[in-house]
Amino acid sequence: MRLMPEKIKTGHKLILLFTISSFLISCKAKKNLSSDSFSRAEMPAKMYGKLTLKDKYLLAYYAQEMSIDEQEIGTNVQLYRFIDDWFGVPYRIGGLTKQGIDCSGFTQLLYKNVYDFALPRTTSEQKKIVSQKAFTDLKEGDIVFMNYDGKLNSHVGIYLKKGRFVHAASSKGVMISNLYDAWYKSHYSFGGEVR
Asked: Ranges for the NlpC/P60 domain (predicted)?
């Protein structure tokens, strides 16, 4: 089969058009992710872009579990993937594996995997690097502390949305709880942002 000169020219035009389009798209200005215009808690959502259908279902599932609107859950898929992967893992003092994990170990692993930040290992060390804020100002990714067994700030978790937080509880392992529930409300100490 012989190619006609008109077809070659058209083919070259398409290739040239495609190349120029690709170049222009790749040269588009990118947002500087190192700026202070957003908090560490918002960072993963800004880095991951479009959501897959599986991610959308995961976020919808957790929105329903937390009794919040799907639009309110945000797009921090990495956070909810991590929670989903660890959900139900039993509590074990000093544990850092799927066979058992304690509350401060869970917050440490979550921060390392989701926010790429190295938190100290224990609750007492973690509370030293948290800037306290009002309960009503808490945002996703903030750390919350509870007084447990008569000890100040002896339990820790990660704030999610609308009073919900994820933690490794001694009774049920890794779970999501509501800070507005009577027990948590009476044992809540403080919450805040990692400095």
From this structure: 73-195
3-state secondary structure the chain: CCCCHHHHHHHHHHHHHHHHHHHHHHCCCCCCCCCCCCCHHHHHHHHHCCCCHHHHHHHHHHHHHCCCCHHHCCCCHHHHHHHHHHCCCCECCCCEECCEECHHHHHHHHHHHHHCCCCCCCHHHHHCCEEEECHHHCCCCCEEEEEECCEEEEEEEEECCCCEEEEEECCCEEEEEECCCHHHHHHEEEEEEEC
103 is annotated as an active-site residue = yes
pTM: 0.74
Structural domains of the chain in order of their starting residue, each with its CATH number: 40-194 (3.90.1720.10)
Q: Decide if 27 is catalytic.
A: no
pLDDT tens digits for range 127-163: 999 999 999 999 999 999 999 888 989 999 999 999 9
Identified catalytic residue from 12, 27, 167, 187: 167
